[in-house]
């Protein structure tokens, strides 16, 4: 069916016109009708601990600055001086003290956005009113420890925007703080990356490290769309196969692992310990899925990926352990062009973690995620290859048709099904159709 200019999508069957990945016109519509109208993750509240602490983001090519005031409130403004439009800071984060001052003509603003200083102000005449030139505010709200901003939100509140995802997300984002960041750019459309984190059909094929270490990683799991436009991907962590993983690493890297030493990254999962459930496990003797590991080892535990419309992905640690609920990474994708995208990843941990626990989390995540990580490199390569392919005439449509039962999936849906992507495109199409 025809849904908007240059976009043909049959959501009932999950058939998506590949032009949405290559059309400059559709890209412009996405910026105007999706990115300026939706809530976007900016930072955590603990990035803004003290008055003057700030964080900057870009939404639809509009620079935005989030800052904590002296009154403890977190506010957001367009990161542009009201005099000539120069950005007030080009840094990603930092502390501005008590004043935001433009480097061009030294116009100064307080932490509430009021214009407080104009050099040689008399030149503007007696009718000049500072109150008319305060920083332009941007909608800002928090959900537990996460800070979100929106240029022109189409819903009354952030909670409304989160919809069915709010209750599911809440346990993961309380009592956390960032401990490391990484960013990189790939040559591909932003949707390829976000689709990938709603997809567990690819893991056993794309990620060699997963295939070698986690045999049958996609054998048991579920996925579902959470209105409006969000999703949950969940799977049961299968038994580990360290010898197979070590043999594969040795074969492809030439490094000798015969002494049993394993590389950073999977070390926390491979740590030896007493048999039985992990510490703090609450899933029952069989992990809550009707069966533990063979031989009386630890039970299967759950892992999740949460995707928030339009461009935030969250992957916490194992769901059934206290540590897993407070450790993981947040990831945003920012479109820089129809075929160019920046990925920003933030590693977080429990606020109660000591330095050693945080260092371990950083090292383990760095081995798999980020611009150099074993898994992220695979995903970046896949997105780049998709972008090259969709520009050709190999086929007009991409298929997101796995899962034949009606609805938005759930615990009866197979982890390889594509209910989560179809929920994304359902809401994606709604925004692009809305001309208001």
Automatic annotation (TrEMBL):
Question: Which CDD domains does the UniProt entry name for this protein?
Answer: Rieske_RO_Alpha_N
Please list the residue ranges annotated as the Rieske domain: 41-149
Kindly state which keywords UniProt assigns to this record, in alphabetical order.
2Fe-2S, Iron, Iron-sulfur, Metal-binding, Oxidoreductase
**SUPFAM superfamilies recorded for this chain?**
Bet v1-like (SSF55961), ISP domain (SSF50022)
Q: Which Pfam families match?
A: Rieske, Ring_hydroxyl_A
Cite the InterPro entries for this sequence: Rieske_2Fe-2S, Rieske_2Fe-2S_sf, Ring_hydroxy_dOase_asu_C_dom, Rng_hydr_dOase-A
Q: Which family does it belong to?
A: Belongs to the bacterial ring-hydroxylating dioxygenase alpha subunit family.
For this entry, the protein name equals Rieske domain-containing protein
**Could you tell me which species this protein originates from?**
Streptomyces varsoviensis
């Amino acid at each position: 069916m025809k849904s908007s200019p240059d976009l043909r999508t049959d959501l009932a069957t999950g058939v998506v016109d590949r032009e949405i990945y290559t059309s400059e016109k559709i890209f412009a519509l996405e910026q105007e009708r999706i990115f300026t109208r939706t809530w976007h993750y900016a930072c955590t509240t603990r990035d803004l601990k003290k008055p003057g602490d700030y964080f900057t983001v870009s939404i639809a090519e509009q620079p935005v600055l989030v800052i904590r005031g002296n009154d403890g409130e977190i506010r957001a403004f367009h990161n542009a001086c009201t005099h000539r439009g120069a950005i007030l800071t080009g840094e990603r984060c930092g502390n501005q003290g008590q004043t935001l001052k433009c480097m061009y003509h030294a116009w100064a603003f307080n932490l509430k956005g009021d214009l407080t200083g104009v050099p040689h102000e008399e030149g503007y005449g007696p009718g000049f009113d500072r109150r008319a030139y305060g920083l332009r505010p941007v909608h800002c709200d928090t959900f537990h420890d996460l800070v979100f901003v929106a240029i022109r939100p189409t819903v009354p509140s952030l909670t409304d925007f989160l919809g069915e995802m709010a209750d599911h997300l809440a346990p993961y984002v309380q009592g956390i703080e960032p401990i490391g960041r990484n960013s990189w750019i790939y040559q591909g459309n932003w949707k390829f990356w976000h689709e990938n984190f709603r997809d567990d059909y690819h893991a056993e094929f794309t990620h060699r490290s997963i295939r070698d270490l986690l045999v049958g990683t996609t054998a048991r799991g579920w996925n579902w769309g959470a209105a409006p436009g969000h999703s949950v991907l969940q799977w049961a962590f299968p038994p580990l196969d360290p010898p197979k993983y070590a043999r594969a690493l040795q074969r492809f890297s030439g490094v000798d692992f015969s002494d049993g030493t394993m590389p950073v990254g999977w070390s926390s999962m491979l740590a030896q310990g007493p048999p039985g459930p992990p510490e703090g496990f609450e899933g029952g003797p069989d992990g809550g899925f009707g069966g533990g590991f063979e031989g009386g080892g630890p039970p299967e535990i759950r892992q999740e990926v949460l995707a928030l419309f339009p461009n935030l992905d969250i992957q916490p640690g194992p769901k059934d352990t206290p540590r897993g609920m407070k450790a993981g990474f947040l990831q945003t994708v920012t479109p820089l062009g129809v075929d160019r995208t920046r990925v920003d990843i933030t590693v977080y941990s429990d606020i109660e973690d000591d330095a050693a626990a945080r260092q371990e989390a950083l090292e383990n995540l760095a081995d798999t995620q980020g611009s150099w990580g074993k898994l992220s490199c695979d995903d970046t390569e896949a997105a780049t290859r998709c972008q090259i392919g969709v520009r050709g005439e190999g086929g007009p449509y991409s298929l997101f048709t796995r899962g034949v039962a009606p609805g938005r999936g759930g615990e009866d849906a197979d982890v390889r099904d594509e209910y989560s992507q179809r929920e994304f495109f359902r809401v994606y199409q709604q925004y692009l159709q809305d001309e208001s």
